[in-house]
Structures are given as structure tokens and as C-alpha cells.
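Lecture 7 notes. Example A: sequence first, then its C-alpha cells.
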Amino acid sequence: MTARKTRPPEPTVAAIVREQTGAAWSRARALCAEGRVTVNGERCLDPASRVPPGAAVIVDERAPKLRTGSLSESAIAYFDRDVVVVDKPAGMLSIAYEPGDKDTLVDCTRTLLRRMRGQDRGLGVVHRLDKDTSGLMVFARTADAKRILAAQFRAHDIERVYHAIAHGVVAGQRIETHLVLDRGDGLRGSYGLFRRPRVGIPPEAKRSVTHVRPIAPLAGATLVECRLETGRQHQIRIHLSELGHPLVGERVYIRDYAGPKIESIRPMLHARVLGFVHPRTGQRMSFEREAPDDFRAMSEALRL
């Protein structure tokens, strides 16, 4: 048998910006989002877009910054007087973590609802997604809705399905560990994995369960579905990394990975399905959104 060679994908705009400026991935992506990068004279806002051979990429860090933080109406998957379900773009904070954080998903969703319906009520936060994770989130619009949704999250009654691109050949399995803030090397992780466990599981450790199912083999990676039985901070990223298959684009939980790394401007993780019981009507609701362009482009570039 002869191995079929795959042509390496064309470089992304962010990769070329990094090569020209020496900037970090986050800065290269920001330069694109700020409108300070052009390809063949046209402003390029998508750092994941591919650059054909011979194209002229120019970075002007002093160019006027575009106004950011807006959401299109298509980002609203559902809303009523109690809840709003939003498809969060990658690179946007869910909420403000520090004073001065602007253009968060909370802010942009409130602005969009005001523009669409003239409604300007507060939004209650019941869960979050990492800044670089795309996909579905739900906000509460009343105090009762927030209380009831928060109870569903605590009871792990929320349906949450993610799609991810992970390094290597990933097999289907159920992963159950107890996550702690410091597994022994300064990183959040599973108790007893990095260092030999002491007597018993510490009380602060949180039981975490992820169901992993491979969807499609890729070149050096696997497209996988991750269904959360529990929802802990960085749970999928940690579980896949400790399994030996860190996310493509992972920056933190990849230090122990010795295999060939696939470059990406962000961790390839998308919250595809979100389901819950409506806090007022009691009706079971489920929403699904396709992964964004950068995720699909990476999947296509690695397709066998």
C-alpha cells in the first residue's frame, strides 16, 4: 500500500501576521478583528481565513480601530420574556471579569435586544463559556428564571453537547475524574493523575464526567463530540488533554503532549447543543448551532 500525501493547508491570515510582527496568537487575532490587516488591499477581519499564494498581507498597527462588540440578529437563537439563548462568537468574553472589560456577550446581547425590540431589562448569568470557545449560552431575564436555571445547572440537568477537534486518534469513552484547582504542577486538573493520591479524595475536588464520541478521523486529529454529564471549568479541555489528546489550538493544557502539534488561533471547541427546561412553562427546550467558519475551515483543512 502507498500512503497518500496530503497537501499542507494554505496559511491563515493570523499565521502570516505573526510571522510579520512576531506577535502572539492573541495579538495577531486582535489586529485582524480591529481592522488593521488587509489582504490584497481588502480589510480582513477573519484571522482564520486562508491566504492564497502570492497574496499581499499588510499589517498597519496604527490604522484606525474598527468598532467591535456588535452581534448580528442571527446570533439570537431564541428569546422570550424569561430567557434568551445566544450563539457566542469565539474571542468574546461571556461577562466582564475585570473593571473596564467591554463588549462582552452580556453587553452585546442587551444592546441587540434593545435594538430589535426596544427591551432593556437586565440579563442574569447562570453559566459561562471560555472567551475562545464559541457556541450556545442562555441568560435569564427575570430573577425567577435565573434561580430556576441555576438550580438546573447545579443538578446537572442541562443538556450540553460540544464539538471539538483533538490531536491524535481519539476513541469513544466515558471519562470520570475529580477536578482540583492544582493537580500538583500549578494547573487545574484531575486529582491523583499528576501526583500519587494521598488518602481519599479531597473535599474540594469536584466530580467531573465527560462522554467522548469520535465523529470523523482527520489528519493528525479527530473530530469528536463531547457530552457533558457535569459542567466544570475547562472540563473538556482538561479531560481530553489528560487522555493524551489536547484540543487543537490548546495553549494551557498541552505542556505534556509530545506529539506533533497542529497550529490554530484558538482552541477548537464549540458548544453545539444546549437544552433545558423552560423556567416558567416547564417545557423541555433544545437548541443547536453549527460551528463557526474557523472551526469548519480547520476541520476541512485536516480532512483525510
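Example B, a different protein, same format:
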Amino acid sequence: MKWMRTLPLALTLGLILTPGANPGAAQSDDASKIVAMENLWNQMQLNHDAVAMEKMIDEDFVLTDYDGTLLDKKQFLDSIKDMSIKLTRRCPRE
């Protein structure tokens, strides 16, 4: 019975410590890739580039908007194509 309490603890510690085994450079490379993808995503939305966005997202894509509205892939792409929607880039405060 004692192993039933020890095993979850060992698994949890393994999951926590595993990322620490990777060098910091690899983590910063991953972070850079994520930021680059986010910037690309933002540019596609700002430029109403639904063709590029369609290549980036999966068929099962579902977006939950800030107000809780759900959009499937087609609805999301239609919103990107909608030229009446004016998006702006807002820089974070420094």
C-alpha cells in the first residue's frame, strides 16, 4: 500500500525535474519559436490573411474568444476575411 502513495509522488517529481534537465538555451529557443509563431499569427490577423492562417490551423481548430464565444475553423477564417473588422496592434506598457 505504501507504494501506491510513493508512485504518484515519484511521477510528479519526475515531471517537475525533467524540464530542469534541459539546458537553458533549449528552453529559450523554444520560447523564441513560440513568440515568433504568435507574431506571425498576429500579422495574419492584422493583414486579413485567411489563406495563410488556414495553413497554420488544424481542421479541428476551435477558438474561445475573450467573451466566451466559440468559433470553429470556418467561422474563424471568415472573421479574418471580414474587412469590416479593424484590428489594431496594441503595445504593452513599459
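Note on Example B: Strands lie at 62-64, 70-72. The radius of gyration is 20 Å.
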